[in-house]
Amino acid sequence: MRLAIDAMGNDRGPLPILQGVGNFLQKDRETAVTLVGNRQSLEEIMPQVGLQESDRLNIVHATQVMEMHEKVQNLREKRDSSIVRLVTEVKEGRADGMVALGNTAAAVGATCMGLRNLEGVRRPGIALPLPTKPGGVCVLMDMGANTVAKAEHLMSYGIMASIYSEQVLHVKNPRVGLLNVGEERGKGNDILRDAFALLEKSPVNFVGNVEGGDVFSGSCDVVVCDGFIGNVVLKVSEELGLTVATWMKEGFRSNWLSKIGALLSKGAFNFIRKRMSYDEYGGAPLLGVNGICVIGHGRSNATAVQNALRVARESVEGNINGKISSRLTAMKEEAAQILAAAGTENI
Hints:
The longest helix is centred in the last third of the chain and has 26 residues, at 227-252. This protein has helices spanning 14-27, 39-45, 82-91, 104-115, 151-167, 190-201, 214-217, 227-252, 256-264, 266-276, 302-317, 320-330, 332-341, and strands at 2-6, 32-37, 57-61, 97-101, 125-132, 136-141, 175-179, 205-210, 222-224, 283-287, 292-296. It folds into 2 domains: 1-115, Isopropylmalate Dehydrogenase (3-Layer(aba) Sandwich), CATH 3.40.718.10; 122-279 and 319-347, Isopropylmalate Dehydrogenase, CATH 3.40.718. The chain has 347 residues and is of the alpha/beta class.
């Protein structure tokens, strides 16, 4: 198996990407990696982390980079950007899957244009694993691929995220909830009410409407929402975690007794930090495209990069796309009836 990674998209530069790739290659002796980016820049840094080109590590040169502030339209002017070259590696079969870091909109746009969607999928979505109590994982779908979604898109999100949860996260019969402003059936706008009806009839373990707190409560394994709401949930959760950590540091430094308490609780705090850390999850798969693509955080460190590559490998090994296609094909006739009742034609 060979995976490709955008080595230029990280806010922190190529160094943590190369460190993560090196850690991944040391742990996984069977997977090869292609670095996509400026050859000169990468060759200057690789010796610092003990890397060199080999059968398991090669470079595909790209002269351009999609910066964080750039829009999807700029892809037309940057056909030699690292993200476009990355997608080409998968499209032309030189890589089995890829990891894209940095500009999420550009990564989604380039992937959708280059690889197209799986048959039966109208809108791909980003499936983000989040920690829950007690010790579980909830997949938030969509995390930011589409800021506006129709009811049928939300239904397909539920189906795809349920398959991912089942096959990669090993959750048996995942419980799927629709993020809403209340648990009652009639809550929300017309889109959410229509999505409720579609999910209720779809081949997933639909548990109804859920509220924001249920994302972390452990009451469901998949939470479906549009990308605007999903991205807000993610960013608020990240900042809240950092803010709580700051408050705790301030409290423990307030007097000598608190400092002793902090030392005694160090192990517990390390456990909490690891559970809350995005680095441990690494990346979120873009489900619904005709190829394996894992979206990584623009501030990914070496651990996050290593785990993003692991997620990509597991997605390839689990044949996620094949299973999504099979599930959608199997339910095609039933889905057509469900969607026809809602006045739509395709998922």
